[in-house]
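User: Teach me something about this protein's shape.
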Amino acid sequence: MRIRQIRPEFWTDETMAGLSHATRLFYIGLWNVADDAGWMEWRPQRIGAVLFPYVPPTRRERDIGTWATALQEAGRLVIHPCGCAQVPTLSKHQRVAGKQSFTALDAHKAHAKKAAVAIRGYQSLSDSPVEERRVEERNGMSIDDLMATRDAEDDADREKMATVRALRA
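Assistant: First, the predicted structure itself:
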Protein backbone atom coordinates (compact mmCIF):
# COMPACT_ATOMS: atom_id res chain seq x y z
CA MET A 1 0.00 0.00 0.00
CA ARG A 2 1.12 3.52 -0.77
CA ILE A 3 0.73 6.76 1.13
CA ARG A 4 -1.54 9.16 -0.77
CA GLN A 5 -2.77 12.71 -0.33
CA ILE A 6 -6.33 13.93 -0.47
CA ARG A 7 -6.37 17.25 -2.28
CA PRO A 8 -8.83 19.94 -1.14
CA GLU A 9 -10.69 19.88 -4.47
CA PHE A 10 -11.75 16.28 -3.77
CA TRP A 11 -14.34 17.56 -1.30
CA THR A 12 -15.92 19.95 -3.81
CA ASP A 13 -15.82 17.65 -6.84
CA GLU A 14 -19.39 17.48 -8.16
CA THR A 15 -18.95 13.96 -9.53
CA MET A 16 -17.75 12.63 -6.19
CA ALA A 17 -20.44 14.59 -4.30
CA GLY A 18 -23.07 12.51 -6.10
CA LEU A 19 -21.67 9.28 -4.64
CA SER A 20 -22.30 7.81 -1.21
CA HIS A 21 -19.88 8.41 1.64
CA ALA A 22 -18.94 4.73 1.63
CA THR A 23 -18.19 4.83 -2.12
CA ARG A 24 -15.97 7.88 -1.63
CA LEU A 25 -14.09 6.18 1.20
CA PHE A 26 -13.63 3.08 -0.97
CA TYR A 27 -12.33 5.29 -3.79
CA ILE A 28 -9.73 6.83 -1.49
CA GLY A 29 -8.78 3.33 -0.35
CA LEU A 30 -8.21 2.30 -3.97
CA TRP A 31 -5.58 5.04 -4.22
CA ASN A 32 -3.62 3.24 -1.52
CA VAL A 33 -3.90 -0.10 -3.32
CA ALA A 34 -3.04 1.23 -6.80
CA ASP A 35 0.49 1.64 -8.11
CA ASP A 36 1.79 5.10 -8.94
CA ALA A 37 0.19 5.08 -12.38
CA GLY A 38 -3.22 4.29 -10.88
CA TRP A 39 -3.27 0.60 -11.82
CA MET A 40 -4.02 -2.40 -9.63
CA GLU A 41 -4.78 -6.06 -9.92
CA TRP A 42 -8.57 -6.25 -9.66
CA ARG A 43 -9.08 -8.80 -6.90
CA PRO A 44 -12.11 -7.59 -4.90
CA GLN A 45 -11.67 -10.17 -2.13
CA ARG A 46 -8.06 -9.14 -1.54
CA ILE A 47 -8.81 -5.43 -1.84
CA GLY A 48 -11.68 -5.81 0.64
CA ALA A 49 -9.49 -7.69 3.11
CA VAL A 50 -6.87 -4.92 2.94
CA LEU A 51 -9.22 -1.93 3.12
CA PHE A 52 -11.96 -3.30 5.39
CA PRO A 53 -10.44 -6.10 7.49
CA TYR A 54 -13.07 -5.87 10.26
CA VAL A 55 -16.11 -6.14 8.00
CA PRO A 56 -17.48 -9.65 7.37
CA PRO A 57 -16.25 -10.98 3.98
CA THR A 58 -19.68 -11.53 2.41
CA ARG A 59 -20.79 -7.98 3.28
CA ARG A 60 -17.60 -6.28 2.09
CA GLU A 61 -17.60 -8.21 -1.22
CA ARG A 62 -21.22 -7.21 -1.84
CA ASP A 63 -20.44 -3.60 -0.95
CA ILE A 64 -17.30 -3.53 -3.11
CA GLY A 65 -19.38 -4.67 -6.09
CA THR A 66 -21.85 -1.84 -5.49
CA TRP A 67 -19.15 0.77 -4.93
CA ALA A 68 -17.09 -0.35 -7.94
CA THR A 69 -20.16 -0.12 -10.19
CA ALA A 70 -20.88 3.41 -8.93
CA LEU A 71 -17.26 4.46 -9.52
CA GLN A 72 -17.29 2.96 -13.02
CA GLU A 73 -20.47 4.82 -13.88
CA ALA A 74 -18.87 8.03 -12.59
CA GLY A 75 -15.79 7.42 -14.77
CA ARG A 76 -13.46 7.13 -11.76
CA LEU A 77 -12.66 3.42 -12.08
CA VAL A 78 -12.01 1.31 -15.16
CA ILE A 79 -12.02 -2.48 -14.77
CA HIS A 80 -10.36 -4.26 -17.67
CA PRO A 81 -11.20 -7.79 -18.82
CA CYS A 82 -7.62 -8.92 -18.18
CA GLY A 83 -8.09 -8.64 -14.41
CA CYS A 84 -6.55 -5.20 -13.95
CA ALA A 85 -8.26 -1.99 -12.88
CA GLN A 86 -7.30 1.64 -13.20
CA VAL A 87 -8.07 4.81 -11.30
CA PRO A 88 -7.64 7.02 -14.39
CA THR A 89 -7.04 10.33 -12.62
CA LEU A 90 -4.68 9.11 -9.89
CA SER A 91 -1.39 9.98 -11.57
CA LYS A 92 -2.75 13.44 -12.41
CA HIS A 93 -3.63 14.26 -8.80
CA GLN A 94 -0.92 12.52 -6.81
CA ARG A 95 2.64 13.72 -6.46
CA VAL A 96 4.87 10.77 -5.78
CA ALA A 97 8.15 11.26 -3.98
CA GLY A 98 10.83 8.61 -3.78
CA LYS A 99 10.94 5.40 -5.74
CA GLN A 100 7.96 4.95 -7.99
CA SER A 101 6.12 1.67 -8.49
CA PHE A 102 4.43 0.67 -11.74
CA THR A 103 4.04 -3.05 -11.07
CA ALA A 104 0.33 -3.28 -11.90
CA LEU A 105 0.70 -1.08 -15.00
CA ASP A 106 3.54 -3.31 -16.20
CA ALA A 107 1.39 -6.40 -15.57
CA HIS A 108 -1.45 -4.84 -17.57
CA LYS A 109 0.88 -4.02 -20.45
CA ALA A 110 2.08 -7.65 -20.43
CA HIS A 111 -1.57 -8.74 -20.67
CA ALA A 112 -2.08 -6.29 -23.54
CA LYS A 113 0.97 -7.66 -25.36
CA LYS A 114 -0.33 -11.20 -25.08
CA ALA A 115 -3.73 -10.07 -26.33
CA ALA A 116 -2.13 -8.25 -29.28
CA VAL A 117 -0.18 -11.34 -30.15
CA ALA A 118 -3.35 -13.46 -29.98
CA ILE A 119 -5.33 -10.97 -32.07
CA ARG A 120 -2.69 -10.95 -34.79
CA GLY A 121 -3.09 -14.71 -35.16
CA TYR A 122 -0.09 -15.95 -33.22
CA GLN A 123 -0.71 -19.19 -31.40
CA SER A 124 2.28 -18.95 -29.08
CA LEU A 125 5.47 -17.06 -28.46
CA SER A 126 7.48 -19.97 -29.80
CA ASP A 127 11.23 -19.71 -30.29
CA SER A 128 10.94 -22.02 -33.28
CA PRO A 129 12.63 -20.59 -36.40
CA VAL A 130 9.86 -22.09 -38.53
CA GLU A 131 7.20 -20.31 -36.50
CA GLU A 132 9.18 -17.05 -36.63
CA ARG A 133 9.31 -17.29 -40.43
CA ARG A 134 5.53 -17.89 -40.57
CA VAL A 135 4.94 -14.89 -38.36
CA GLU A 136 7.13 -12.70 -40.57
CA GLU A 137 5.35 -13.91 -43.69
CA ARG A 138 1.88 -13.26 -42.22
CA ASN A 139 2.50 -9.90 -40.64
CA GLY A 140 5.77 -8.59 -41.97
CA MET A 141 7.10 -8.42 -38.42
CA SER A 142 8.65 -11.07 -36.19
CA ILE A 143 7.55 -11.62 -32.60
CA ASP A 144 10.89 -10.20 -31.41
CA ASP A 145 10.35 -7.08 -33.52
CA LEU A 146 6.78 -6.74 -32.24
CA MET A 147 7.87 -7.08 -28.62
CA ALA A 148 10.80 -4.69 -29.12
CA THR A 149 8.41 -2.12 -30.60
CA ARG A 150 6.01 -2.52 -27.67
CA ASP A 151 8.88 -2.27 -25.15
CA ALA A 152 10.10 0.93 -26.81
CA GLU A 153 6.56 2.37 -26.58
CA ASP A 154 6.42 1.41 -22.88
CA ASP A 155 9.77 3.11 -22.24
CA ALA A 156 8.59 6.25 -24.04
CA ASP A 157 5.42 6.28 -21.91
CA ARG A 158 7.49 6.02 -18.72
CA GLU A 159 9.75 8.87 -19.85
CA LYS A 160 6.71 11.08 -20.56
CA MET A 161 5.28 10.33 -17.11
CA ALA A 162 8.62 11.14 -15.45
CA THR A 163 8.83 14.44 -17.36
CA VAL A 164 5.29 15.41 -16.32
CA ARG A 165 6.04 14.60 -12.68
CA ALA A 166 9.28 16.58 -12.82
CA LEU A 167 7.43 19.60 -14.22
CA ARG A 168 4.82 19.38 -11.45
CA ALA A 169 7.48 19.27 -8.73
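Now, about its shape. The chain is about 60% helix and 5% strand. The chain has a mean pLDDT of 75. If you'd like, I can walk through any region in more detail.
User: That's plenty for now, thanks!
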